[in-house]
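Render Flagellar protein FliL in 3D.
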Amino acid sequence: MTVVAEIKGAEGEADSDDKPKRSKKKLLIVLVAVLLVGAAAWWFVLRPTPPEEPKPGEMLPLESTQINLADGHYLKIGIALQMVEGAHEIDGSKALDATIDLFSGQDVTEISQEETRKALKRKLGSELEERYHGEVMGVYFTEFVTQ
């Protein structure tokens, strides 16, 4: 009888050791599940989204203007503004002013070079974007004649 009691006692001890291991496993499983749910919530709800690129809207062609260059030369330039979708009616005088400021006094041989002309166009585009507070997203030359 004592052998049976010892066996039962040994089984009882084994059962009591399994209970803490099981609760540790359950705790670990619950912790992993909570982390997965939290990560999923962050991904779908709280994750910052990048701002959307503005969509092109109306094109606003401006009247050509003549600009004095260096050494008695001049430039006849026409531009068109690419507005963003939903932009309010804009006045082209700021664009013409920026164009005159940028091109006045330039050397005719420099602005006749394609690389220089593209660089000036990029600079004009960024200046117009700033002056029109993001309502203009691009500028195009519609006329570019030097003499």
